[in-house]
């Protein structure tokens, strides 16, 4: 009984126009389109689904621990009392100088102070002493019972060890805090005995109010006593300071310094102003004198038009200029011996002598003015120094007098103020009332505050869920393998040609995962050739989608020589090579499947071929092509060339010119040549053959291929200018992808239902 090729359920692709890889009709683009539509919530849901057992285990452990801790916790009751603290008014009778300068700030400080007092050790010891808690077994259950009060120890000092133990037990249950936006302080005490907690709370509040009132009364009493003592001393100081003031007035004949001091000061100011003016005038006169002595006085008259004699000198100079002009004209016209010229010469000489005489008078006048200015400045300076000495003497006496007078006035004022305060303190000591009032007394609680079962269970649930999710995310972050198409796109710019789903085997009601390229499948020869065994399965449809990507990967004609490789071993390249060859042959194309993995060949086991010659013997010249290229009767148009015996130097054989010649020959004889090669990171065989191929397909296995390895494989192929078509993601678990791809969800169920559960005969049993 011979097997006929099964229908692949897809239309013939002959005559179809090539479609751009970036278009939505390309399967790779369809995958990218759907991947981009997924939101982050779906991505995290996939992570949690994959790590669900870690999440559930963490959640169960944490939740169980919270339940156990809640059930074993001691029931505690809390008794609460509320106390109101009102602003204190010390000025009950309206005494002067007793108003509060900053009521808001001081009141806030008062509230904080009262809270600190309620938490103080002194108040706690008074409550312990009043209730004799050191002998109460309810209080001393966690401490050692004390036979007598710790305050009755020697020298009225509490025993440090016992007091510390009692205070620690007391503070462990006490809670005091302010109620926001109010004047209330909440005092609570927690204990396993509700009545005992109520007693302690009420006693604490009562003791606090009593201590507050007693402290205020003692404070006023102490203030009054201190004022009485200070007044006696201050009265003596007032008498002494007044006696010193009177004695100093008599010794220095001082009747009153204010008016006399004003006269001396005014006279000193006037002399200072006159001296300043005299110094300014002297400086000006000195400048004029030096200028007149050093240069022509005429220049001084030009600089200072108001100078005396300046007008006469100007007239003489004008006359000199006029005579000089007439003299020059007459000399030119009549000659030097002409009488008129001689007359003009005499007149010009007289004018010049007058000018020199006027200059001499001006110098003498300027010198006299400078001497007068110097003498006036000297006299004013002498008078100013005398007046300043008199003012200094007056100031010395006034300073001492002012000090004595101020001391006497200060002592007298202080004495009067203290006397007034003493009278006010005596009256207010009996009128001051407490500003603390109990709003709510503590009542016996009926329900425990801890443990809060509902809250603890909710917190345990949330904590367990959070830790479980966190653990899942941490485990996922440490996972460097490629899982989906999005990670492929993030690692490399190469297009994703498609995904091959993780196959499932039906065993009655049990569905067990079988990895596409596992050793068991390769040894058995079953399930690996899924396009022949189960042509309607989702895996077969994925290979047909890969076939479409291959045929439409280039414009013009589809690629003929296609090299299939992977980054690392056991990633499914052999299975993808075989199934790709099958779907291309099912389309009607002449396909040669070439096993170029001369180190670990797999096509012989996959198709169940008997050991015979192969590629290694063909390149070595031991066999001919027709002897080693064997057809597959069950799949028309499919020929297989096995690897043959493993040679000692596989890389040299694959890189030889003989291998290149055979590839060129098969390019003409077949429509497609599928070459299965070793992993490119393990050996160099695939890299050597990649330039001879029209297209190179890189296989990555979901959950096994690491991102660094895949990135390195892409870089290695691109470095040798290999025409890499794209990447195929193998063994993709579509059941954990939640509808990422078109063959997921109910469509995958449809394919399974279409398959018949009957036993099938494998291709291996019919290939000789």
Describe this structure in words.
The chain is flat. The protein is 57% helix and 11% strand. The strands form three sheets. Strands 5-14-13-8-12-9-11-10 form an eight-stranded mixed β-sheet, sandwiched between helices. Strands 2-3-1-4 form a four-stranded antiparallel β-sheet. With 768 residues, it is an alpha/beta fold. The model is unreliable at 1-25, 98-102, 505-526 and 738-768 (pLDDT under 50). The protein contains 25 helices and 14 strands. It has helices spanning 27-37, 40-50, 52-72, 103-118, 121-131, 160-173, 194-252, 257-294, 297-303, 310-334, 339-431, 453-477, 485-491, 519-524, 530-533, 538-551, 573-586, 603-607, 615-620, 625-628, 650-654, 657-669, 685-689, 707-719, 746-754; strands at 77-85, 174-178, 184-191, 436-440, 496-501, 503-507, 510-514, 561-566, 591-595, 629-631, 638-641, 672-676, 695-701, 724-732. Strand 2 (174-178) and strand 3 (184-191) form a beta hairpin.
Which keywords apply here?
14 strands; about 55% helix; flat; 25 helices; about 775 residues; four-stranded antiparallel sheet; disordered C terminus; disordered N terminus; single chain; eight-stranded mixed sheet; alpha/beta
């Amino acid at each position: 009984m011979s097997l006929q090729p099964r229908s692949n359920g897809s239309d013939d692709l002959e005559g179809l126009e090539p479609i751009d890889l970036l278009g939505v009709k390309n399967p790779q683009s369809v995958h990218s389109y759907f991947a981009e539509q997924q939101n982050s919530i779906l991505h995290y849901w996939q992570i949690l689904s994959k790590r669900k057992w870690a999440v559930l285990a963490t959640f169960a452990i944490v939740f169980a621990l919270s339940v156990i801790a809640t059930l074993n916790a001691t029931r505690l009751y809390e008794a609460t009392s509320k106390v109101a603290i009102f602003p204190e008014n010390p000025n009950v009778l309206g005494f002067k100088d007793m108003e509060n300068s900053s009521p808001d700030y001081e009141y806030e400080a008062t509230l904080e102070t009262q809270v600190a007092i309620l938490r103080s050790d002194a108040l706690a010891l008074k409550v312990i002493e009043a209730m004799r808690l050191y002998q109460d077994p309810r209080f001393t259950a966690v401490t050692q019972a004390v036979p007598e009060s710790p305050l009755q120890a020697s020298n009225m000092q509490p025993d440090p060890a016992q007091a510390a133990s009692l205070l620690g037990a007391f503070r462990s249950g006490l809670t005091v805090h302010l109620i926001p936006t109010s004047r209330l302080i909440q005092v609570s005490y927690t204990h396993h005995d509700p009545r005992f907690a109520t007693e302690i709370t009420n006693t604490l509040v009562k003791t606090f109010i009593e201590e507050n009132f007693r402290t205020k009364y003692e404070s006023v009493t102490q203030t009054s006593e201190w004022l009485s003592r200070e007044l006696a001393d201050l009265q003596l100081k007032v008498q002494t300071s007044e006696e010193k003031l009177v004695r100093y007035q008599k010794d220095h004949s001082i009747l009153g310094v204010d008016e006399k001091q004003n006269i001396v000061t005014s006279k000193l100011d006037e002399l200072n102003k006159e001296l300043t003016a005299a110094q300014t005038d002297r400086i000006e006169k000195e400048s004029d004198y030096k200028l007149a002595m050093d240069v022509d006085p005429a220049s001084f008259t030009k600089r200072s038009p108001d100078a005396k004699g300046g007008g006469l000198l100007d007239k003489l100079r004008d006359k000199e200029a006029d005579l000089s002009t007439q003299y020059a004209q007459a000399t030119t016209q009549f000659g030097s011996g002409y009488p008129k010229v001689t007359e003009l010469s005499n007149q010009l000489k007289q004018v010049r002598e007058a000018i020199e005489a006027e200059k001499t008078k001006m110098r003498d006048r300027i010198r006299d003015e400078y001497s007068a200015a110097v003498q006036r400045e000297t006299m004013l300076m002498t008078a100013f120094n005398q007046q300043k000495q008199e003012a200094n003497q007056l100031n010395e006496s006034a300073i001492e007098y002012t000090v004595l007078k101020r001391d006497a006035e200060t002592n007298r004022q202080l004495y009067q103020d203290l006397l007034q305060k003493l009278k006010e303190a005596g009256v207010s000591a009996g009128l001051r009332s407490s500003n603390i009032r109990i709003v709510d007394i503590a009542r016996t609680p009926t329900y425990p505050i801890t443990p809060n079962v509902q809250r603890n269970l909710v917190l345990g649930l949330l904590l367990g869920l959070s830790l479980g999710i966190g653990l899942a995310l941490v485990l996922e972050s440490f996972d460097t393998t490629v899982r989906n198409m999005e990670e492929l796109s993030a690692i490399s710019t190469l297009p994703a040609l498609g995904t091959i789903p993780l196959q499932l085997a039906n065993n009655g009601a049990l569905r067990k995962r079988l990895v596409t390229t596992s050793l068991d499948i390769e040894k058995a020869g079953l399930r690996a050739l899924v396009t022949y065994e189960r042509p309607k399965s989702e895996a077969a449809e994925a290979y047909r989608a890969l076939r479409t990507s291959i045929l439409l990967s280039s414009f013009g004609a589809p690629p003929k020589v296609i090299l299939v490789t992977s980054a690392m071993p056991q990633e499914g390249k052999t299975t993808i090579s075989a199934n790709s060859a099958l779907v291309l042959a099912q389309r009607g194309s002449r396909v040669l499947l070439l096993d170029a993995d001369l180190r670990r060949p797999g096509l012989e086991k996959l198709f169940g071929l008997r050991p015979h010659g192969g590629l290694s013997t063909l390149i070595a010249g031991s066999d001919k092509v027709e002897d080693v290229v064997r057809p597959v009767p069950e799949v028309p148009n499919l020929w297989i060339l096995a690897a043959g015996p493993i040679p000692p130097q596989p890389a040299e054989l694959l890189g030889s010119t003989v291998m290149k010649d055979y590839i060129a020959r098969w390019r003409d004889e077949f429509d497609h040549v599928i070459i299965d090669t070793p992993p490119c990171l393990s050996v160099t065989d695939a890299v050597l053959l990649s330039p001879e191929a029209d297209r190179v397909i890189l296989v990555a296995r979901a959950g096994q291929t690491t991102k660094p390895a895949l990135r390195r494989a892409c870089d290695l192929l691109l470095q040798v200018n290999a025409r890499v078509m794209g990447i195929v993601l193998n063994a993709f678990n579509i059941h954990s992808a939640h509808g990422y791809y078109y063959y997921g969800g109910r469509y995958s169920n449809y394919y399974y239902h279409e398959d018949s559960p009957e036993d099938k005969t494998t291709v291996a049993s019919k290939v000789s």
